[in-house]
Amino acid sequence: MGHASSVRRMQTRRAEAQARRPTSLRVLAYVVDAHQPPSRAALAAATGLSRATVSATVDQLVDAGLLRELDPVLTRRVGRPAVPLVPASGTLAGIGMEISADHVGVRVLDLGGAVLSERVDYADLRDADPVAVVDRLASLLDPVVEALDEQGVRTVGATLALPGLVDQSSGVLHVAQTLGWRDLNLGELLRTDRTLARLDPVLSDAAKLAALAEARSREEESFVYVCGEAGVGGAVVLDRQVLSGAHGWAGAIGHIVVDPMLGADGTLERLAGPDVLVRASGLGPSARTPALLAAIEAGDVRASEMVRRGGEMLGRALASVVHVTDVSTVVLGGAFWSLTDHLAPPLLAELRRRVVLAPWVDFQVDRAHAGDLPALTGAAWMSVRRMLDDPRVFQALLDR
Fold first, then answer.
1. Could you tell me which residues are beta bridge partners of residue 96?
2. Cα–Cα distances in Å, from 184 out to 139, 173, 232?
3. What is each CA distance from 75 to 2, 50, 70, 80, 164, in whole angstroms?
4. 257-313 pLDDT tens trace
5. Which one in 91, 117, 335, 348 has a CA-CA gap of 20 to 30 Å to 31?
6. Tell me, what's the pLDDT at 398?
7. pTM metric for this prediction
8. How many CA atoms lie within 13 A of 345 on its CB side?
9. What kind and span of H or E run contains 120?
10. How far is residue 305's CA from residue 312's CA, in Å, rounded to a whole number?
């Protein structure tokens, strides 16, 4: 089945799940997800609920401190002015955390997406001791959680973004090549810290969480997200939903083979990861992407050639993704973000040369919009999203 069929299936499942949620949660979720603040009348039309039911539910959510009314807006219709509704700020919050090869971080978002707190500790964590890294994370998290408790902000959940394949059910991180970790029971390790044990964070792939943040920040409903730091990650977004796959591991774009002659070394990550491009440009072992961009802008022929070849490799890998997903927009994030202008021309050329449907499709390559450290934003938002999707979690919050 094609893209349209996949979208219809996801829309149907989403509609069925929404219909099973209690009225208060359906109304809250609609306001949280709305691109423009809806009125009570707009909510009734969108949810199929009666105006009386919507009005009573909104009043309950306002009294509970979950929704807030804006100033009335005059319209041409007869009757009372429309009163737009928005999520209340600073009442419920999701915690996002991240462990990466060059940082650990914590970011807290409320229902409206506002950042309530953020702490990031930058360090080279390649091949670092997992116990020491978790201690770093806990030292950032403890004061954040204490401040939320003092401010009366209720935490709806926590999510930890990781650069690798993780089994959410067992908490085992199977492999994180950029960290040098393999078959690590990270869930068990997290429970050794009191605050992390209390939050019981869900573990998830950083690239997918970054793609989730990206989906909330742009108009395109479907795109392929590619991010690069020490390695290459990715995700496919259809109708604003990040595809997870049967085991939650879909989107491992960096492991697509782009040069079969090199065998296991012929993957996109091994040939066109940001660190690989920097090293191949002869800029030294400690150089990073900003140095590569500066070299290109200074007219360094070798650096320009390496990035051109990197764009070609990206195009080869993404041609396979496009054939499977029928998605024509590519979004570059992470360390690829600053190189977009230089990667896009060879990437597009490969797509137009290799993709069968190219004569009838307008391919687009764009920079990511989600801002700095998008996996942290995605992790925090995923924590909020689970509450909106799970009536039991929502009811437990109301009962506190």
1. 107, 159
2. 21, 5, 21
3. 42, 21, 15, 9, 51
4. 999 988 888 999 999 999 899 999 998 878 889 999 999 999 999 999 999 999 999
5. 117
6. 67
7. 0.87
8. 6
9. strand 115-122
10. 11
